[in-house]
Write a structure and sequence with these properties.
The chain has 184 residues and is α+β, with helices and mostly antiparallel strands. The chain has a domain of 82 residues: Immunoglobulin-like (Sandwich), CATH 2.60.40. Helices cover 30% and strands 22% of the residues. It is built from 4 helices and 7 strands; from the N terminus they run ααααβββββββ. The longest helix has 22 residues. The two termini are 49 Å apart. The relative contact order is 0.11.
């Protein structure tokens, strides 16, 4: 008749973990719609400039002008080559993580953790779909994070779908999330 709560939570979590597929033709459809939007009425200088920039123009160039343009292009290429020889600083790539909590009686839920200095005001969660489901997406760089859910301004909850952290500091329950690097 009724499925156990753990089965329902697992089914919801599996559903939320599925990747979202976006139609590859979406970009072309959006750009086609944008180009059909009428341009603002043309008496303004900006409108006239925009129309002038969008029309084709014939450009004639004297040999001296061509030589000057080639010299300017050569300078730009040489400058970009010397800049590209300096090592780039290592970049840490963030990944978006969705946190989900099933809390049917909660009126307010926040995600707190190392990534937001345990500040309950910085990452509020929102109801998603049903009255019981709370969710938020947070970008996280590679590393290990302790986190918890702060419910109704009074109760700390560890994430029931993640490993529980050892009590190292405050005695409140928390969970651990390890975000892997991109091949390091």
């Amino acid at each position: 008749m009724f499925e156990p709560v753990d089965d329902a939570i697992e089914r919801i979590a599996r559903h939320l973990r599925r990747p979202v597929r976006i139609d590859p033709a979406l970009d072309s459809r959006v750009m086609r719609e944008i180009t059909t939007v009428p341009q603002p009425g043309g008496a303004t200088l900006l409108g006239a400039t925009w129309r002038w920039l969008r029309r084709p123009h014939r450009v004639t160039l004297t040999p001296l002008g061509g030589l000057a343009a080639a010299a300017a292009l050569a300078v730009v290429v040489l400058l970009s080559r010397t800049d590209s020889q300096s090592p780039a600083p290592p970049q840490t790539e963030s990944r978006a993580f969705q946190f989900v909590l099933v809390a049917p009686r909660a009126t307010h839920v926040s995600l707190v953790g190392d990534f937001n200095d345990w500040d309950a005001t910085r990452t509020p969660m929102r109801r998603a779909g049903s009255e019981a489901l709370w969710t938020v997406v947070v970008p996280l760089a590679p590393g290990r994070y302790h986190y918890a859910f702060f419910v109704d301004g009074a109760r700390w909850l560890a994430d029931p779908s993640a490993p529980v952290a050892r009590d190292e500091d405050y005695g409140a329950p928390s969970s651990v999330l390890t975000v892997g690097g991109g091949g390091s």
